[in-house]
Amino acid sequence: MAAALPLFEAGEVGAIEWAFDSLYRYDELPGWFADLLTTYGEAGRLVGHGVFFSLFSGQWTPEQAAWLTSLRALSQRFRFDHVTEHFGFMTGANFHQGAPLGVPCTPQTLALGRDRLQRIQDACGCPVGLENLAFAYAPDEVKQHGEFLRQLIEPINGFIILDLHNLYCQLMNFDISAPDLLALYPLDRVREIHISGGSWHDSAADPTRAIRRDTHDDAVPDAVFNLLTYVMDQCPNLRFVVLEQLGTALDTDESRQQFRADFRRMDAIVKAMDTDGNGLVNSFLPPKQASVSNPPLTDAALHAQQRTLATILETATDYQQAQTRLASSELAHTAWQPERWQPAMLETAIAIAQKWRRGIEGKL
Description:
Strand order of the largest sheet: 1-2-3-6-7-8-11
CATH architecture: Alpha-Beta Barrel
Number of domains: 1
Strand content: 5-15%
């Protein structure tokens, strides 16, 4: 709040995104915060963003059911313009202690993801979208991601949050050009863009490289602002552009000043390219015939694989041990293709999973 309050006081904040499931430790919202949400919601400028639903978990859990119940109640209390979640599944057995990681692009995971998205849409009653993931094990996974997102959101007329720092991580980690990667995304389905900062981490598995991670704990790189300028006019249905940063990274006057400078730079880019909104051709409202089937779709084999992978990532001492354990697990020679995972990215997955298991909440 110390970082953002001057922006609110100056009337510079056009919309807010609320990670509504991140306040699980609190029984109720402070009055001033509820008033803020109400004010922006009534103006059509409040969007909800989920973190913990674990869209691709093979098992349906009581925590997921409770998450939907909470979303339904919040959607009745506050007016969300739209609601979004992250691609992937949470590795942790504990609902709030796990890392969001990807799944294979298969007919089984496609069906599971579509089932979950329909349930989110049924609960919130507004457009629903998915955010592209920052992490991948191998280049093929990166190149499949945009098309798989399109297939997932199709039945509910959903949309994509294009997180440009997530995209930047993939550009850097897999040496892909921005035009080549963006050509694989359905940019006409982009309704929201995220920008943020992150960090570089040296790799013991490959000492010649550093891995870019979406840690949300630093200023926005120039390259991400350049991506914003490059991609905005290719997204005909874009409605929101959002700056994200973890509050724990805004603990000095310098960092708070930098946050406001990043916001104003983002705002200037948006205003320079903004239109009156009359060109939007997709409201992303759900088709009226969409319905939720019961019981929720599950996949016992996928769940077993996810638990095995999570256990390996959360307990491995290094990537070599993880490789050995993966090779003798039920994930070997399956659609997960652990045989093709880059050692440096497997090492990164271990670091991510073990960080979240320790309860350090943040991004990838």
